[in-house]
């Protein structure tokens, strides 16, 4: 006989609710059961009206971000066995709730697009030039920052973004740093305008919680601090190049 | 017709009390306020020194009041807390390499403590000579 866990979920049904309300469910669970599986059980067996997002179930698609006991987590990577006292699940913080555990991420996606997350190079190497050579050091400059799965947990952890969503935010700035550090890329000058802006790297007050909650160890806080170093260098260099 | 009605949650003034990580962050940042007050007290002492020995001694006397001693002790503890937490974060802002290998984080943290020890020692020597 499986144990039963009481799971509280913050519900929001825009057609009927004026504001989100908590609802409890009793879920039988085993040691291997993830939060995502618990939600599937609730939807299949207890309440088909519950809405949540998910896709890969293996911590790579970034769809199932949610708050578990107030901490941003991936539902598929969080297990009921680690919460013997029960759990409270709610939609990812700092994003508007669309319905139940589904949030509106369009602002985050717009920010990701704005930083030009692709290699910019007016003179790309042709096939005749052979393959791109990159030293282990050149690869190490950006590899960690390329592991982002766009789950948005770092935005939910960032009080700066919560207080003022004009801040470009951790994932977008980490991705920006990733492309700026890529030895094949020549788009740094374009992206530095975003880094240098007040809502760019300088909007970050270095809380550091983004790196703490990142399920892929991207360390956006480090990327942003390194962005500040680059921005400071950019500022000094610009002083010697008036009119540009 | 769309039934969309996204609900935006407000962050109240107590947002930093809801998560211990954020609470520790605010405690760290709060030290800047205490250090600012401490700096003004110290500057005022310098101003009193410029007014002569009697003025400076009366300032010293005020400073020996238990409340001011407590304030100085609090400033020291808070500043040390800020330093320790800040030193731990320092490697994030450094991208230092030796050849093809990145300098380990603990080298940078140890370097910060070494710099603090050296500067403190230099300050002590300056005061004592």
TrEMBL record, chain A:
Q: Which InterPro entries match?
A: 2Fe-2S_ferredoxin-like_sf, 2Fe-2S_ferredoxin-type, 2Fe2S_fd_BS, 4Fe4S_Fe-S-bd, 4Fe4S_Fe_S_CS, Beta-grasp_dom_sf, Helical_ferredxn, Succ_DH/fum_Rdtase_Fe-S
Q: E.C. number, please?
A: 1.3.5.1
* Keyword vocabulary terms for this entry: 2Fe-2S, 3Fe-4S, 4Fe-4S, Cell inner membrane, Cell membrane, Electron transport, Iron, Iron-sulfur, Membrane, Metal-binding, Oxidoreductase, Transport, Tricarboxylic acid cycle, Ubiquinone
Q: Which superkingdom?
A: Bacteria
Q: How does it sit in the membrane?
A: Peripheral membrane protein
Give yes or no: UniProt keyword Cell inner membrane. yes
Q: How and how many cofactors are bound, per the record note? A: Binds 1 [4Fe-4S] cluster.
Its annotated compartments are:
Cell inner membrane
- Cofactor(s) this protein requires: [4Fe-4S] cluster; [2Fe-2S] cluster; [3Fe-4S] cluster
Q: Where is the 4Fe-4S ferredoxin-type domain?
A: 138-168
The reaction(s) catalysed by this protein are: a menaquinone + succinate = a menaquinol + fumarate; a quinone + succinate = fumarate + a quinol
One protein family per Pfam: Fer2_3
Recorded hits in PANTHER family, A to Z, give: FUMARATE REDUCTASE IRON-SULFUR SUBUNIT
Family per similarity comment: Belongs to the succinate dehydrogenase/fumarate reductase iron-sulfur protein family.
Protein name (record) = Succinate dehydrogenase iron-sulfur subunit
- Which organism encodes this protein? Agarivorans gilvus
Query: Which lineage ranks, top first, belong to the organism behind this chain?
Result: Bacteria, Pseudomonadati, Pseudomonadota, Gammaproteobacteria, Alteromonadales
From TrEMBL, chain B:
Cite a single Pfam family from the UniProt record.
Answer: Fumarate_red_C
Q: Which SUPFAM superfamilies match?
A: Fumarate reductase respiratory complex transmembrane subunits (SSF81343)
Which key words are in the record? Cell membrane, Membrane, Transmembrane, Transmembrane helix
Taxonomy, superkingdom? Bacteria
Query: Any stretches that span the bilayer, and where are they?
Result: 25-47, 67-87, 107-128
Q: What is this protein called?
A: Fumarate reductase subunit C
């Amino acid at each position: 006989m499986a144990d039963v866990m009481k799971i509280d979920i913050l519900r929001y049904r825009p057609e009927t609710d004026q504001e989100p309300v908590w609802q409890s469910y009793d879920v039988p669970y085993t040691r291997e059961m993830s939060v995502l599986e618990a939600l599937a059980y609730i939807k299949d067996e207890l309440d088909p009206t519950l809405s949540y997002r998910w896709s890969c179930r293996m911590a790579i698609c970034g769809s199932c971000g949610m708050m578990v006991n107030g901490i941003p987590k991936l539902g598929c990577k969080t297990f009921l066995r680690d919460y013997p006292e029960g759990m409270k699940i709610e939609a990812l913080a700092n994003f508007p709730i669309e319905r139940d555990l589904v949030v509106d991420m369009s602002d985050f996606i717009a920010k990701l697009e704005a930083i030009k997350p692709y290699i910019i190079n007016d003179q790309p190497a042709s096939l005749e030039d052979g393959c791109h050579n990159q030293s282990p050091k050149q690869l190490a400059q950006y590899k960690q920052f390329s592991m982002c799965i766009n789950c948005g947990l770092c935005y939910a952890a960032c009080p700066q973004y919560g207080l003022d969503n004009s801040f470009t935010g951790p994932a977008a700035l980490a991705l920006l740093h990733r492309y700026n550090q890529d030895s094949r890329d020549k788009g740094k000058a374009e992206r530095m305008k975003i880094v240098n802006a007040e809502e760019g790297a300088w909007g970050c007050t270095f809380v550091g919680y983004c790196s703490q909650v990142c399920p892929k160890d991207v360390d956006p806080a480090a990327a942003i601090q390194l962005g500040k170093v680059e921005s400071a260098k950019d500022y000094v260099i610009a002083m010697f190049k008036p009119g540009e | 017709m769309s039934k969309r009605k996204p609900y935006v949650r407000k962050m109240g003034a107590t947002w930093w009390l809801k998560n211990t990580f954020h609470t520790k962050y605010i405690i760290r940042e709060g030290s800047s306020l205490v250090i600012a007050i401490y700096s003004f007290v110290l500057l005022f002492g310098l101003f009193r020194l410029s007014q002569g020995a009697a003025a400076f001694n009366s300032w010293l006397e005020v400073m020996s009041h238990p409340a001011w001693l407590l304030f100085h002790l609090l400033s020291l503890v808070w500043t040390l807390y800020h330093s320790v937490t800040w030193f731990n974060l320092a490697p994030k802002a450094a991208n230092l390499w030796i050849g093809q290998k990145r300098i380990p984080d603990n080298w940078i943290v140890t370097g910060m403590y070494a710099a603090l020890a050296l500067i403190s020692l230099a300050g002590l020597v300056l005061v004592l000579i």
